[in-house]
Amino acid sequence: MDIVLVSVSKLSKTIGEKKLFSNLDFSISEGEKLAIVGINGSGKSTLLRAILGKEETDSGQIIKNNNLKISILDQNPVFDSNETILDHIYKGENKLVKTIRKYEDICERMGEGEEGLDDEFTNVSLEMDRLSAWDYEGQIKSILRELGVEKLERKMSELSGGMLKKVELAKALIDESNLLILDEPTNHLDVKSILWLEDYLANLDKAILLITHDRYFLDRIVNKILELDRGNYFLYEGNYSIYLERKVEREETLQKQEDKIKQFLKQEVKWLKRQPKARTTKQKARIDRANELQGREKREIQKDLELSVAAKRQGKTILEIHNLKKSIGERVLINDFTYTFKAKERLGIIGPNGIGKSTLLNLMAGRLTPDSGYLKPGLNTKVGYFDQTSSELPLERNVLEYIKDVAGEMIETESGEKISASKMLERFLFDGKLQYTPIAKLSGGERRRLFLVQILMTGPNFLILDEPTNDLDIQTLSVLESFLDEFPGTVVIVSHDRYFLDRTAESLLIFRKEGKLDHYIGTFSSFLEVDSLEIENEPSSSKESTIPKTIVTNEEKPKKSKQDQKKIQSLEKEIASLEEKKTKLETNLSTFANDHMELSKITQEIQTIEAEILYKMEEWEKFHNE
After folding, report:
1. Which residues contact 435 (CB under 8 A, 6 or more apart)?
2. Least confidently predicted of 213-222, 280-289, 459-468, 551-560
């Protein structure tokens, strides 16, 4: 029988008036791989924090095995600003890591010419032999390389948010443990890294507790799923496919129960109308029973959630791109790209992080100016751009007020039906109470969902989605996929989520080396079968940079004056500084998820910095293109 590592018994947690979970019972045994699923705000991260001892619960207990060793993907890593990537990785306290760290230190000192270290070097080498540390060191560097973490001498303080996440993921995989806890491990990873991580975890002989929106990832890795749903919980044995089958069976059973309850309630209404006003004890019991069933009906049944909205009819021309070129510094991101979008097209864009995908989207949306070539949008083309930030939301407004500001009291669907803004929000998982919640009090995932609704409510007919699956839960993604099925316009998607791409994209643009793009007709999975994804290695920063590193030289343009060159260099430094400051603030956002005043303050700072970056970039482009 497998040894139980963590046992959760009768666990309950309520925040304000919102019940996250009640009398929760489950366990994690050696080698078991369990995923927690549920909409954003359902309590997934709260439950993880409770297991880690970082969150108090209202009742119940969590019993941990005395031999439990946990390694965790830390969303908010703590590090010394002067330590390198390798220093941070080797910061663990187990004997193996200490020995490797000592060996690396002695090698470094000997390399610098320090003498008298021969005996120390011999002793630590023997200790490395005894602990089989040579293989372990190679494994560490192999994991870092597979995740795209190179130049291990770089300081942790210099890394982007995405690269910090990769380093923390590598550290979690490397640390000695028998339980690995991962919260959204595929965020910030490109497809090659995700495929590698999937294989690694599928073959890993240790217990895993996982939160992820990546459905192929879930299907391949987990053997148990815990669903949190409006204060209730459901435990399923099996992977994601089996979970879906069992969930459908459960909901069909509930639907039958609902039909019976409705029939019973109709009979009770008829009975009540026939009775005199004075009630006997037996009559009151019947009324109480009817009320209880009515409450159960509302509580247990969750309707299929779909969303459609009227969009402006597309014209003959959607968007034409001719000989487009865009560079940042000496690096060519997009080189002589020509493409004509068709009505109702579904196009996915793939490639490593930092290769130019978001730059292409910003060019399409008119947020950036090309170095050469041009884009010609149609007269009737209306762009809706769901980018990777939702910081522009008015934090002081509540959810319903905000959507009414954007779309009005009544919203017209694609079929011509008119529904209220409140009903539309319900279809996107914003229930009555949540609709009257100030945006400042929403979780990060709930804000992303609201930002998405806002984009869709404006009635675009050319929809641009930049990493839409990041921070959205599986149920919201299913609603979005259903929406896209019915959407009458053109859709362009940048995503690393294979399931989402397979579900939504009918063809792909693939970024290759030196800014070249290929067009492939077919699904993402079929593309992977014929292409090894040998794309240009990921740039040193996993977060696509908007920072111009150096000046583009162009023989057709006159040389710039020294004054202009100094101005450009000054702007580059200022943009780099602002980008770094913004990244650090974004990293801190999740730390203050429950401190709404601090969250509001940080969000406003990010907005100010983004505006400043945009202004500096426009200045840079002006000087650069003169």
Report:
1. 398, 399, 400, 422, 425
2. 551-560
